[in-house]
Design goal:
12 strands; four-stranded parallel beta sheet; 434 Repressor (Amino-terminal Domain); 3 domains; Rossmann fold; 356 residues; six-stranded parallel beta sheet; alpha/beta; single chain; 15% strand
Length: 356
């Protein structure tokens, strides 16, 4: 759709459309809302050359943190003291590293959190108003792919963290992820080396790539060792401490509890520790626990948590560098990279007890 088509549709002049897009102050609020509603409805993308001088850039990128849950209205973060970024062992280091790296490259960073599909529509406006030159999306779920793919088709520069590249083989974008699958394989292989064959898992949010790949590594490694994954030993968590608590209680209260639990992130491991203590069990004497992420608090748990280390800082810096290079070169690069995962042995796992 051209700007003249949009103007004709709304009964406005092209100059009015342009002044709304360029955020001129003399436009009535009702007209602004009318224009932006139509822009969203008809997926109109203003021509960059009409918005800026040729070659001009805002030197601004956005980091879009996705925690969309439309089943939860309003989102719990908006009604409680919970936070998405502060002290969050996933989002916090990513936001910090993006900000640091962008600053080194003389770019500013806008931080936006999307809690709902309506928030995602507002993200589109950030692009359409040319407030930013590109964006990094973090934690994308399948329901959000259409919006991101539309932005890519409109020639916006995009990088993604914790998003599967297999969903987008025809569009160029930057995908930087942890090697969740191999990290999970390393975690399970270590437990198997210690003699554990009855192993449970507390998964993350299975709408997220990281959780999907960690579960896949868990199941594949067991099967490669001739162990059929037991559905009763799989508890679906959501990466929160409370789900780790509930997951450990569930797995250890059955008639045939596992001797080890793979917890899909360290935050859930904190909840699992609490549940295990309440059940009167000891780590690792009664139950071995292995986490994932090597969060800053993991060495300080009692006992210190054995976990899989991935560098969110390296992931974020790489995504930022590649995005800004794409902006500067005016060419969206297609890059798919995985950051290595490493086993960190501490004191929360031990060899399985013999019968004698």
């Amino acid at each position: 759709m051209r700007s003249e088509d949009l103007a004709k549709l709304l009964g406005l002049s092209r100059s009015t459309i342009s002044r709304v897009i360029n955020n001129y102050p003399d436009i009535p609020q009702a007209t602004r809302e009318k224009v932006w509603k139509a822009i969203e409805e008809y997926n109109y993308a203003p021509n960059a050359s009409a918005r800026n001088l040729a070659g001009a850039k805002n030197k601004m990128i956005a980091i879009i943190l996705l925690d969309v849950n439309d089943d939860e209205e309003p989102h719990h973060v908006k009604t409680t003291e919970d936070t998405i970024i502060h002290d969050n062992p996933f989002f916090s280091p990513i936001v910090n590293a993006v900000s640091d790296q962008a600053n080194k490259m003389d770019y500013y960073v806008l931080v936006s959190i999307s809690y709902s599909k309506n928030d995602l529509k507002r993200v589109q406006n950030i692009f359409h108003q040319k407030m930013i030159d590109g964006a990094i999306f973090v934690g994308t779920q399948e329901a959000e792919y259409e919006l991101i793919f539309n932005l890519i088709e409109q020639k916006h520069k995009i990088a993604m963290i914790d998003t599967s590249e297999v969903y987008d083989t025809d569009r160029d974008a930057i995908y930087i992820n942890a090697d969740n699958y191999k990290g999970s394989v390393k975690a399970l292989s270590y437990l198997l080396e210690l003699g554990h064959t009855s192993i449970g898992i507390i998964t993350g949010n299975l709408n997220k790539l990281s959780a999907i790949e960690r579960l896949a590594g868990f199941e594949k490694t067991l099967m490669q060792h001739g162990i059929e994954p037991n559905k009763d030993a799989i508890y679906q968590g959501d990466f929160t401490e409370n789900s780790g608590y509930k997951g450990a209680k569930h797995l250890l209260s059955g008639s045939n509890p596992p001797t080890a639990i793979f917890v899909s992130n360290d935050t859930m491991a904190v909840g699992a520790y609490k549940a295990i203590n309440e059940l009167g069990l000891s780590i690792p004497e009664d139950i071995s626990i292995i986490g994932f992420d090597n969060s800053f608090f993991s060495p300080y748990l009692n006992p210190p948590l054995t976990t899989i280390d991935i560098s969110f800082e390296d992931i974020a810096k790489r995504a930022t560098t590649l995005l800004i290079e794409s902006i500067e070169q005016e060419h969206q690069r297609r890059v798919v990279e995985k950051v290595n995962a490493t086993l960190i042995k501490r004191e929360s796992c031990t060899a399985v007890k013999g019968d004698g």
